[in-house]
Write a structure and sequence with these properties.
The complex is a heterodimer. Chain A is an alpha/beta fold. Chain A contains 4 helices and 7 strands. The radius of gyration of chain A is 18 Å and the shape is elongated. The two termini of chain A are 19 Å apart. Chain B has a single domain, classed as Up-down Bundle (Ferritin). Classes of the chains: A alpha/beta, B mainly alpha.
Chain lengths: 167, 257
């Protein structure tokens, strides 16, 4: 969510409240960093409505994200705020902020490369090791601890690490 | 919202349920591997694929329920319909068998469904197009994962090759159904809501030939012998699977945890 033109004081306060909400599974990232917050508005009756988009169709964290956003808004005094889910346009890791990518790396997770369309057995870009920066890395499994990550191993420092998948 | 303008469009409800049921049934089959995977990584991978498919099914059920507008939500559609009300492809309900059967089934499904979803992204129905855009991204890596396994099994040991070939020969009879449409689906195709599966047949076959070639497996005939899933006529395997899947919800309606 980028800064917009003049916000009403309510909207500015609501936006600040949700800006601090973090991902339930990767707590160093805010939902803003992740790019799942697609908009915030206030209707004529003053109700706040936040639009989010799911990362993966079956991501179990989506319900927790909606609940955490709602709780943050209630705590900021918006008891009747609503969270709306929009499917289109489909989320892509390209929406992750630069700050988010840096936070991931510092946390030990290789951030997503730019999303590319990869053929069936096409070569994939290897993520750099978030621990030592080496590009000599090998995929252990395309699937990791959460829907959005894959498992890798660094062949230089020998440490295993998670990498954020590109979609 | 598209659901409003299409309200009461029963053909659209049926078409959407077919997609939803196929995703849910296959997703449930994969979830049966949880904690039984051959390695921890593969256990996680199969559960991950299951999660994606069940997630896609939820979005589709949600939409079918909204278009139908009779108060049925995703739970009612998934848990309170009997076997003959399910409209999934027969391929999806086939038992997991050994690991080769599961992977060959997944590969054939993804080789078809990936280009199918890519085509559905151009649907005139905005909600189906949006769901397809999410599913297509996920099916890309489903196809890659299953395809890589088919190559490893086929071009592996004598034992894994024999099992992969047997799985392929057994499941081949359910491939034809992917491409057979009925009056209802033809109407959806004519309305630019559904893609015509005939238009993706060459892509499906190219993917299959490429992977089977690398896997040193021979391609069986894909004849349309076993049909009926889209009309609610199933093989003997769906009923017992649904019984297990639905029992909790039916014993404790509306249970939450």
């Amino acid at each position: 969510m980028r800064a917009a033109a003049a916000l009403s004081p309510d909207l500015a306060r609501a936006r600040a409240a949700i800006g601090a909400v973090t991902d339930p599974e990767i707590p160093v990232l805010t939902l803003d960093d992740l790019g799942v917050i697609r908009g915030i508005r206030q209707d004529d009756e003053g109700r706040i409505e936040v639009t989010i988009t799911p990362t993966y169709s079956g991501c179990p964290a989506m319900a927790a994200m909606a609940l955490d956003l709602e709780s943050a808004l209630v705590a900021a005094g918006f008891a009747d705020a609503r969270i709306r889910t929009a499917l289109s346009p489909a989320w892509t890791t390209d929406w992750m902020t630069e700050a988010g990518r840096e936070k991931l790396r510092a946390y030990g997770i290789a951030p997503p490369e730019r999303a590319t369309r990869r053929a069936l057995f096409g070569e994939e870009t290897k993520p750099a090791c978030p621990h030592c920066g080496s590009h000599a890395t090998a995929k252990v499994s395309e699937f990791g601890s959460t829907a959005c990550k894959s498992l890798w191993r660094c062949e230089t420092c020998l440490e295993p690490f998670d990498a954020f998948k590109c979609i | 919202m598209a659901g409003k303008t299409n309200e009461g469009n029963n053909d659209l409800v049926t078409y959407t349920l077919r997609l939803a049921d196929t995703a849910l049934v296959l997703g449930h089959r994969l979830s049966q591997w949880s904690s039984y995977g051959p390695t921890i990584e593969e256990d996680i991978a199969l559960s991950n694929l299951a999660l994606d498919l069940i997630g896609q099914a939820r979005l589709l059920y949600d939409y079918a329920g909204a278009v139908e507008n009779k108060g049925r939500d995703e739970d009612a559609l998934a848990y309170l319909r009997d076997e003959h009300a399910y409209l999934n492809l027969l391929m999806a309900e086939q038992p997991n068998g050994d690991f080769a059967v599961t992977m060959v089934r997944q590969f054939l499904y993804a080789a078809f469904m990936h280009p199918y979803m890519e085509a559905l992204m151009r649907s005139k129905d905005e909600t189906l197009a949006a769901i397809a855009a999410k599913a297509e991204k996920e099916l890309t890596y489903h196809l890659r994962h299953a395809g890589e396994w088919v190559v490893r099994l086929g071009d592996g040991t004598e034992e894994s090759h024999a099992r992969a070939q047997a799985a392929l020969d057994d499941l081949a009879i359910f491939v034809g159904e992917f491409f057979v449409t009925d009056v209802l689906e033809d109407a959806m195709i004519a309305a630019d809501i559904a893609p015509d599966p005939a238009t993706i047949r060459s892509r499906f076959e190219a993917t299959v030939d490429r992977v089977l070639g690398e896997a040193t497996l021979s391609r069986p005939v894909f004849a349309a012998h076993h049909l009926g899933g889209k009309a609610g006529r199933h093989t003997e395997y769906l009923g017992p699977m649904l019984a297990e899947m639905q029992v909790l919800h039916r014993a404790h309606p509306g249970a939450v945890w």
